[in-house]
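Consider the following input, taken from an annotated entry for GlxA family transcriptional regulator (Billgrantia campisalis).
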Amino acid sequence: MTTSFQAPQKTATPQAIGFLLLENFTLFSLASAIEPLRMANQLAGRELYRWFTLTIDGEPISASDGLKVTPDAAITVPLSLDMVVVCGGVGPARAVQREHIAWLQGQARLSRRLGGVCTGSWALAKAGLLDGYEISIHWECLAAMQEAFPRVALTTRLFSIDRDRATASGGTAPLDMMLSLIGRDHGRELSAGISEMFICDRMRGEQDQQRVPLKHMLGTTQPKLLEIVALMEANLEEPIGLDELADYVDISRRQLERLFQKYLHCSPSRYYLKLRLTRARQLLKQTSLSIIEVASACGFVSTPHFSKCYREYFGVPPRDERQGIGSPTPSTEPLRSAALAGADPQHLAEAPVSSAVLALVQAQGEPTYASVPL
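Applying the prediction step yields:
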């Protein structure tokens, strides 16, 4: 994961983000990306961000749930954007059009930051704008994406921020990505305040993983392997020995190890350890259990051994994980965009007004308005 970000320039000009909507985009993911921006403005008491929804022709477009959304503008309208986020959903391969690709490539030439939520990364990859980048996409598309775009470094993380690309998987993951970006722009106090307003129990970070169903990765061709993993997941506090696991599904230990190496690319003991450590991380972040209790709940007989394994796997000891002390948080690149050179003044006059302004006016009566000093 690349973390070569720099702190943004302090400026009174709000960051402008364009959301490119693909046919059958996921409304949930769009809202998860926009709502943190609205709340950032509300808590700051001023316009830190403005946003625009865009389609090819500016006409209403259908979300995956059938609802029609009227965009703010067509992509032909020249807007001074700092970032473009592609919002995908069902059938991204069918939804991406030549006009999308050409426009995204043009945005890249203007040094705009680019992002994707849900399956929006597909459009960026199709435009050749993700080659050599680490990216996230909804787990349903992982296999197809890897096949179609072998130069893209796919991860199973909830979201990925790599240089001037920011991509998130589906559901609420765009919320976590936006909280991370806002925190880098304006400080952790603001992102924490937004999280509280949305009743988030915690802010998930880049290292948090999607829970990809093993059946999705393996299909139905390896029932014994699926059964073994299910046994492991059901026995984290008191791990079952590998010989016993093999006996449960009536195979030899050598066959067991071959299955894991072939389909999961690690040894069965390593995979079991990963399950236990992942569970330990959840308990550290989401409960008040002591480190000793967490170690015991995850099958470690010794706290020092647990701490050693945890640090080797996650890069931080359990105590620091609980206190939120990890790797230094990189800051986003300052990519403030100037007005488009040579743009037609008539077109500029027709440019839409971001709904961020109206949302901020309506928020002035809220008790939390301007409650976070910047």
